[in-house]
Amino acid sequence: MTTKIxxxxxxxxxxxxxxxxxxxxxxxxxxxxxSSYGPNQIALFIAAAVAVIIGIKNGYRWGDIEKAMTKGIAxxxxxxxxxxxxxxxxxxxxxxxxxxxxxYYGMQLLSPSWFYxxxxxxxxxxxxxxxSSWTTxxxxxxxxxxxxxxLGLSPAITAGAIISGAYxxxxxxxxxxxxxxxxxxxxxxxxxxxxxxxxxxxxSIIIALILFTLIGLNSSVTADDAQINLISSTLQxxxxxxxxxxxxxxxxxxxAIKKVPAFPTVFIGALLGGVWAVLFQQELLRTLIGGDLSHxxxxxxxxxxxxxxxxxxxxxxxxxxxxxxxxxxxxxxNTVWLIFAAMMFGAVIExxxxxxxxxxxxxxxxxxxxxxxxSTIATCIATNILTADQYMAIVMPxxxxxxxxxxxxxxxxxxxxxxxxxxxxxxxxxxxxTCGAYMHGVLNVNPLDYFIYAFFNLxxxxxxxxxxxxxxxxxxLTPPESVQQELxxxx
Length: 491
Description:
Elements: H1 10-31, H2 39-57, H3 62-75, H4 77-96, H5 98-109, H6 115-130, H7 133-151, H8 155-171, H9 177-186, H10 190-217, H11 225-238, H12 247-257, H13 262-280, H14 282-289, H15 295-309, H16 318-323, H17 333-351, H18 354-365, H19 369-387, H20 390-407, H21 412-424, H22 434-443, H23 447-450, H24 455-470, H25 479-489
Helix pairs in contact: 1-2, 1-18, 2-17, 3-17, 4-13, 4-15, 4-22, 5-7, 5-11, 6-7, 6-8, 6-10, 7-8, 7-22, 8-10, 9-20, 9-21, 10-21, 10-24, 12-13, 13-15, 14-15, 17-22, 18-19, 19-20, 19-21, 19-24, 20-21
């Protein structure tokens, strides 16, 4: 005999979210910056347990819920593989001198007054070229965080500039996965989608650049020549600094432009870093190997350990040690734990229909075009918070709202743009989201610290809502398009 499944009540939908928000708030209050290293994971597990109890109460079987949890975690495995490869890449690029070279030249070229704005522009150009905010943060972003430390600038503001630029470039690049996913879900054409997004993304990045420029110009921090000289001399003392050590970066960017999948691209970059260490950092390898093993065998062991456990350098200065050490797959394991916990929670609430219940309640109140677009953005943000995945934050609201947009005569590009404005853009602002956890792991800056400085990511959704209520660039279906949409939705 099969148990009849009941639709969740609004209270059912609300309870796990209240529990999660309460526990996450308590986690930040009690543990501070350490909240992402265990406390947040436990909060997600407990909130998932509450959702499971509600699901069983409503007639779902544990076996079905467990399968949904497993499937939800499986969806994140691609991101996890990339994350582990990025950890290996950071380690070998430190050993190869690639990141130290970027830091060295960055400190020579970038002025503190223009650093934040320049970082945002640089990351925007790279992300637009390769279509990946993640790869941009793991390469150029890591180096810029190092440069900021050397210049005495704020890591949190720097991270905000990196993420602002990286997500702007990613969002308008035809090579980006999310930029292709949003119009596919909404039924829009790719380049029409990108053109329509320019109306919200370009003003948002201009405002962000103005803010970064004002912060830089009004900052009391000036370049400390003695500190810069100390770091530069330390880098030259321990590493061979030259154009050749940047080759792994150019190879990785070329592979990304050629649309080689992210995981093999990053992992090949990590292995190439190990090869480059052997070719260009012989003195450093001799120092680190010691006399216990032959040079060849010792180099092999050192590169192997760097891939899984990262790179550590002893310079005599704790600050410089922190700047020039890190990476390794093991450094990403806590982030993987956080992603698994978040995806498990998101899978449960999707399976038992809690998100669907929220959307049904929202649509009853969304009478105007402005309120519909605002509701879509709010649903994307909520999905980012609850399912912890930017792809889910595009696909789920897209499926939920597509028919309503068509019914109201709105062109598909309105929905596709809104999915990006609310889903893609806000994902790195949430600590337990795959994107937020990734940025924390790569940049070593807590999302709660850089949140207020990710100007582009904060401004863009607000601007989208203003456009919606003012009727700016809200396109209607043309008569032929309406017929096509009608034929498309017919069985």
